Description:
Number of strands: 4
Low-confidence stretches: 291-296
Radius of gyration: 27 Å
Shape: elongated
Strand content: under 5%
Helix content: 55-70%
Structural class: mainly alpha
Amino acid sequence: LERYPELDRLKGVPQEETFHGEGDVYRHTEMVCRALTGFAEWNAMDAGEREILFPAAAFHDIGKKNCTKKEEGKILSPRHALAGEKVFRALAYREKERFGLSFAEREQAAKLIRYHGLPLWFAEKLRPEAELLKAAESISLRQLHLLAKADVLGRIADDREALAARLSASRLWRAPALLAAVTLLFQMAAGGIFENQLQDLFSFLGRSFRPYMYIASVAPLLVNLALDALLAVQCYERLVLTYRLFGRRPPWARAWGAWALALALALWSACSLVPYARDLPLVLEGKWSTGIVTLE
């Protein structure tokens, strides 16, 4: 870290002991950089990637100098990543010869600083896939994952292993797995229940409202088809994110299992809709009644 004397300002900047038992921000930064350079992935990188990732690791908490405060007995550093991005960009611009970064490299390092906490906390976002894909527009998600991993391992904390588990590839596939289970349950049971309830609701309207009975039969099948489509989209998003975050293929057992289920359920819903599609002319003619043609 002697290469960056600007980091001396982090000495003495306190951190919450529960999460950072190692001491001040400077000590944490030393441990993060040491952890990063010890990864096998670091050794496999080319020099250009290292020149972007190492400054990002060294300056990832530079914003804590201005953001750290004490509230209700706890040390907090709100929005330090956003502040750190601005501080690093200004430093790298003023000292561009010493930093040796091109405009594109400087911006990538600055964005890595801004998003360095995202892999840990993205699941708490409203749409986690959107947050990661937004970050992917300006940085390498594989580098972001390594930075977040070094940030977790470069500390002394009781929950360090739990935090490291948040960075696992399997965590990305929990939402599709849950959606697959919900979709399967709805397809097997809820569709029939909802159909009966809707038909009971519309039955009091009489024979002149047969189209409503038709809608009551078709609506649950359309909901199933929508859930199947959502499941397929989530699987695709997770596939892309797993590859770009971890630089490897996703856990195929979960990926293919979810896709196979989505395809099977979609075919199930589509086949169930075929008879109703054939009956549509009868509905328009007023001759359809709970699936039975009435001869009048």
